[in-house]
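Changelog note: in this version the structure field was regenerated for every chain. One regenerated record is shown below for reference.
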Amino acid sequence: MTDGFLVPDLTATGPLAASVARVAELAGKLGLSRCEVFDVHQLSEASGVPAEVVGALLEGRPAGEPDLQARFLQRFDLLRRTRLKPNGRRYTHQEIADGAGMSRQQAGALINGDRRPTMEHCDAIQRFFKVHAGFLTAEDAAALGGALERTEQRLLHDYAGESDPLERLLQDNGVRGIAWRAAQLPTDKHRDKVTEWLDLLLESVKPTAP
């Protein structure tokens, strides 16, 4: 694993191994590198599983399994760090309480680990942060498997779209991979250069008038 990107050797076990294999196969058909679909930090944010545990599970290594309370606290903390307000700030205890329909004291006790969550608490918090059901409670392997299934559905959608000639041409030119790499560039100036290239490509494939 380097810089948060994992190239799985497909040694994960059980249903997780099957998901990894399917995603890797689809990535290959779409001309994507495994680094693009197995970014452990992105999978961590999508699943709620810590990045180091994501890496271990994908490599087929035992990673332990926290109890429900520890899992809830870890994933609630991840939500608060990664699902931010439009201004880039974290939601306050009061904002979470209001959005989840509980008192500020209840929200604070849950965040600090002073109170064990009920399923109603979990459902309300998941709705507030707009994440899927079970985000706060699913066991690590199941949570990662769900994230990979959603990745698989996205890749299947992209693969089906290749029947469109323009879509296929863009894929043949590696546009998806280029766009993903462009997102890693450090400044808008660098990304603008990529945009200019894409504009030239799109102009070149526009159908000509009869």
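Spot check on this record: Residues 198 and 204 are 10 Å apart (CA to CA). Confidence is low (pLDDT under 50) at residues 1-7.
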